[in-house]
Amino acid sequence: MAGAGDRSIAALGVSLAANLRVGSSHVSASATALAGQRILLCVGGGIAAYKSLELVRRLRDAGAAVQVAMTAGAQQFVTPLSFQALSGHPTRTTLWDGAAEQAMGHLELARWAERVVVAPATADLLARLAHGLADDLVATLCLATEAPLAVVPAMNHRMWRHPATEANVAALRARGVQVIGPDDGPLAEGESGPGRLSEPEAIVAALAGTAGPAVVASGLLQGLKVVVSAGPTYEDLDPVRYLGNRSSGKMGFAVADAAARQGAQVVLVSGPVQLETPRGVRRMDVRSAAQMRQAVADALPADIYVGAAAVADYTARAFSPSKIKKTGTGQSLVLDLVRTPDILAEVAQRADAGLKLVVGFAAETDNVADYARQKLTAKRLDLIVANRVGVPGSGFESDDNAMTAYWPGGERDFPPAPKVRLADGLVELIAERLRA
Ligand code: CTP
């Protein structure tokens, strides 16, 4: 009966398990997380390749063992010898080097790696990785490895914003690839915009998981205001009991965080949850569906509304000021409940709210696609994100999820991944739909 992104059935008197995850960023944490890790650094052909020298040093400082592979383009900017000196291993530059292959075959190198980092990842390299090409050593290693892949893009800002690059990055993210950066700022050609390679320190922190899911914004939602609702609502029955649901709020908080990192001004309307407010986000705490409705109305106008809250669909017709006493054995208790207003549908219909995009969530146990598309139409949404609940390792309370987004005429699958990563992918899709 409750609604939403990470919600569930209403349960009398159920309180949420405290599940506090706090992220901090400091070097010792990076060192702990990366100590002893075998990292394969693949260097692409961009001017930012010189920063990867510093990256090798910092990864080794954090305790990682580093081997380096370079594309032909990368060798135009930095020499293999420099990487060899810093990594303490021969640098691999081609598939066709018999001596190097004999020492350690490229498939062996792909297996050796516990983590593969591509930095800088040029537009060309991202395209080749997105399409699964194996036309040089670096692409082959990335295809052959089973280790988690992280890419650190660096390129001209027009190339970064090109729909082809955006689609390639979205495809990589959807496969669970970690995308770090790029930074916004001055670029090599005297221009400015998103496309700078993240600083080595930030890359190390992101790899170590100490800087949140993706450190740096690329400004996809720059200048836009986003209102996100998250968490459950509690509908009080009497002074000691309420109707609640098992939503943890993690998905909505992750979306708010991702939007803020993409440059948006974010207001997060949150039901009762045990979560830290994401950096740079304005938070409004509420308890009931009625309070959430009011807070959302107060937060508007905005450019984007994301309804990720598990709003109760029913509330008590009347709050009992005194504790409801139990009746005789064998007698049942009947609660008189009334419908709450559908906040999402109301928002979607408001012409004065300035909204360019309204996004809903649908948590379903079956017929996911059908029910989601019905809600998309019935609530007049621009985008709906559906996830199947009731399966282990996904949905409410879980850190992970799998979901599919539907819009009129299209859909996108997000395979199982941590919610923080899915939120990055969703915000990217939101930016795409805004421009469509
Ligand atoms: N929602 C809302 N206000 C409500 C109920 C739901 O804003 N009173 C929003 C949720 O935030 C979510 C979306 O509607 O984005 C879908 O919620 P869901 O519960 O899946 O759908 P319902 O419309 O409640 O349908 P049902 O419970 O029958 O599946």
From TrEMBL:
Function: Catalyzes two steps in the biosynthesis of coenzyme A. In the first step cysteine is conjugated to 4'-phosphopantothenate to form 4-phosphopantothenoylcysteine, in the latter compound is decarboxylated to form 4'-phosphopantotheine.
Keyword terms: Decarboxylase, Flavoprotein, FMN, Ligase, Lyase, Magnesium, Metal-binding, Multifunctional enzyme
One Gene Ontology MF term: phosphopantothenate--cysteine ligase activity
Family: In the C-terminal section; belongs to the PPC synthetase family. In the N-terminal section; belongs to the HFCD (homo-oligomeric flavin containing Cys decarboxylase) superfamily.
Species assigned in the record: Pseudoxanthomonas broegbernensis
Chemical reaction(s) catalysed: (R)-4'-phosphopantothenate + L-cysteine + CTP = N-[(R)-4-phosphopantothenoyl]-L-cysteine + CMP + diphosphate + H(+); N-[(R)-4-phosphopantothenoyl]-L-cysteine + H(+) = (R)-4'-phosphopantetheine + CO2
Reported cofactor(s): FMN; Mg(2+)
Stretches assigned to the Flavoprotein domain: 38-207
UniProt xrefs under InterPro entries: CoaB-like_sf (IPR035929), CoaBC (IPR005252), DNA/pantothenate-metab_flavo_C (IPR007085), Flavin_trans-like (IPR036551), Flavoprotein (IPR003382)
Pathway in which this enzyme or protein is active: Cofactor biosynthesis; coenzyme A biosynthesis; CoA from (R)-pantothenate: step 2/5; Cofactor biosynthesis; coenzyme A biosynthesis; CoA from (R)-pantothenate: step 3/5
Region described as Phosphopantothenoylcysteine decarboxylase: 1-225
Known EC number: 4.1.1.36, 6.3.2.5
Residues annotated to bind CTP: 313, 323, 341-344, 361, 375, 379
Pfam families listed in its UniProt record: DFP (PF04127), Flavoprotein (PF02441)
Note accompanying the cofactor annotation: Binds 1 FMN per subunit.
DNA/pantothenate metabolism flavoprotein C-terminal domain ranges (all copies): 221-432
Span list, region Phosphopantothenate--cysteine ligase: 226-436
GO terms for cellular component: phosphopantothenoylcysteine decarboxylase complex
Designated name of the protein: Coenzyme A biosynthesis bifunctional protein CoaBC
Database matches in HAMAP family: CoaBC
GO biological process: coenzyme A biosynthetic process; pantothenate catabolic process
UniProt key word Lyase: yes
